[in-house]
Amino acid sequence: MGQYDRKEKSQPKHGKPSSSGASKAPPRPNGGMPGWKGPGYIPKKKSTSKPIAPASEPPKLEPTLPIELEQRILEVFRATFPASNDFEALKPTLQKVNDALLRRDLDAAFGEEENFEAYAIRWSPSRALGYAQLLAWIFAERANDAVTQQLVGNARSQEAMRVICLGGGAAEMMALSGLVRHLLPSEASGKPIVPATEVTDNLEAMNISPTKSATPLLHLSLLDVADWASVLAKLDRGLKTAPVLSKYASATARATNAAFLSPGAVEHTFTRADFLSCSTEDLRAAIGAAPALLTLMSTLNELSMTSMPRTTAFLRRVTEAAPKGSLLLVVDTPGAYSEIATANGERGEETRKYPMNVLLDFALVPKPAKRIGREDSDDEEPRCAWEKVIDKPSLSYRLREGLKYPGSLENLRFQVHLFRRL
For position 201, what pLDDT does the model report? Predict the structure, then answer.
């Protein structure tokens, strides 16, 4: 029957039984009947691996600003950019901008004015609300810092608080305007419009100043490689112009109708610049001599992907330019990392990925170098230039129900790092 040997295949599994009937089977191997511990038993090793815990939700950023103020911010966006009311018509432009940004082609993304407005309509409102809530929380946490006291404690001083947004645009401008309105409502809020015939009689009673305040509460400097000047100018007008009311609005609504900000509350300047190329002198001129708040919101990761060495050098120039007492706020997406080429012996260079906080610590708060065999040296280690005062790898901001906006709004997650210049 060919190669198939029935005789061989038919042998009993454990050999022929003996004449006495006693089994000649070898000891039962491990894995036999449950509970068997006879000869040859080998106990199973207990697993040392721990069960994988489900990913925990990041801590939530509890809202500080009232929902009414958030809604007013959205209304300023809507009134400033009427195209937001026809969101469907914007989708082709938004798709074009999004595709260009994914390719890191800024010229294609922002080559036309309508692209800036489309971006501001789609992505800036959610960020503005999240940044405003984050800033309000930080100002509460750091109430004793010179920068926060300059705004909150010295609202009527002769020098405005300075905020320098490196990579700033529409979201930062609206967030900081919301912060000022929240912290100093009586000084920052726009006043109700009074009919011309009643101005003389009601000016003193309503404490209305017909002219711009001599000293702003906040001076905002924004720098970016893309030209946001036109969009920022429109938002500035929108913040300081009372909403247009329906002809059916009540007398009460008309009497209380006011702009989001008073004319002199917030002043801004915009500079188009590739700040990776800015010198220490350029940064010092932008920051000024007094302590200031410096922000890098959704910017540092983009810079590091462009060039890690240039980004590290830029952070060191910021250190040289920032006056003592200044705050540096870095906000970005959680899990953002930087790629660094490192030497690896005979294999040349290899690329390693480092979390953003490693880059920040390396550039701003480096650890002292180990001194082998120099325990008795009197040399002092150089002091760090910055102190890390807030370090949050992940925070979530969830939109509250009831907010109305014709475009898309989205919840946010971000990592937050705050440093104070020593």
Answer: 41
